[in-house]
């Protein structure tokens, strides 16, 4: 998986620098650097695939009401979700914010089909998706709150297209670095990426030394006291 990620991000060394790390390590690194917590809420879970690393392309969707639909909420955005997907490139991660509402799917097979052809590597939503069995065939790693057979069409309006959104309780901007695995998803601000990658590498090195120390017979208490982790 690491090799495939590096190949996909060969023209993006800033994002590719995070290929060796788990989101948990990056979260610890950001905490150590005094940066704001950007881990998504645990409702956003891995549905298919394994590790995800790429750059965000964002979509914000809002449930329609009895008196307002797409035309009233954002008439110019009727096909914005298709346009955001059509703008994907190698290493893109589509982030679809639905205010945590997962009653209807906002991602499906046709979207995945198009995104995969353009080099997208995955999708993250705090809502629901459908056509789950198709996702692995497209090579996409997908995180969501769950799945729903109900289509989002005519039930949600697109109100944000490639502008900042709040997904899984976290502020996400276009081109933010998205890193995810079975533990969850973290959003990495590019302006701090170099420092975060360096600190992540340091923490990973310390963790390996700590485990080697325990392999030699040290107790967990002794290892924690020696390496002063966290």
UniProtKB/TrEMBL annotation:
One Pfam family, short name: RraA-like
Database matches in InterPro entries: RraA/RraA-like, RraA/RraA-like_sf
Cofactor dependence: a divalent metal cation
Highest rank taxon of the organism: Bacteria
CDD domains: RraA_family (cd16841)
PANTHER family tied to this protein: 4-HYDROXY-4-METHYL-2-OXOGLUTARATE ALDOLASE 3-RELATED (PTHR33254)
Protein name, UniProt field: Putative 4-hydroxy-4-methyl-2-oxoglutarate aldolase
Highest classification ranks of the organism: Bacteria, Pseudomonadati, Pseudomonadota, Alphaproteobacteria, Hyphomicrobiales
């Amino acid at each position: 998986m690491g090799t495939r990620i590096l190949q996909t991000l060969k023209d993006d060394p800033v994002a590719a620098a995070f290929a060796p790390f788990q989101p948990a390590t990056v979260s610890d690194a950001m905490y150590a650097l005094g940066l704001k917590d950007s881990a998504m809420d645990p409702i956003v879970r891995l549905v298919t695939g394994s590790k995800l690393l790429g750059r965000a392309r964002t979509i914000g969707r809002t449930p329609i009401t009895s008196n307002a639909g797409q035309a009233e909420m954002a008439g110019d955005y009727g096909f914005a979700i298709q346009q955001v997907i059509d703008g994907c490139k190698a290493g893109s991660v589509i982030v679809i914010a639905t205010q945590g509402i997962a009653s209807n799917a906002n991602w499906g097979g046709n979207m995945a089909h198009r995104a995969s052809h353009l080099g997208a590597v995955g999708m993250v939503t705090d809502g629901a998706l459908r056509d789950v069995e198709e996702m692995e065939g497209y090579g996409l790693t997908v995180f969501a709150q769950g799945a729903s057979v109900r289509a989002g069409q005519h039930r949600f309006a697109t109100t944000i297209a490639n502008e900042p959104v709040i997904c899984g309780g976290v502020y996400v901007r276009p081109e933010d670095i998205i890193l995810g695995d079975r533990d969850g998803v973290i959003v990495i601000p590019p302006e701090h990426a170099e420092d975060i990658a360096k600190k992540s590498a340091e923490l990973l090195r310390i963790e390996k030394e700590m485990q080697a120390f325990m392999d030699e017979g040290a107790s967990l208490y002794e290892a924690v006291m020696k390496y002063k982790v966290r």
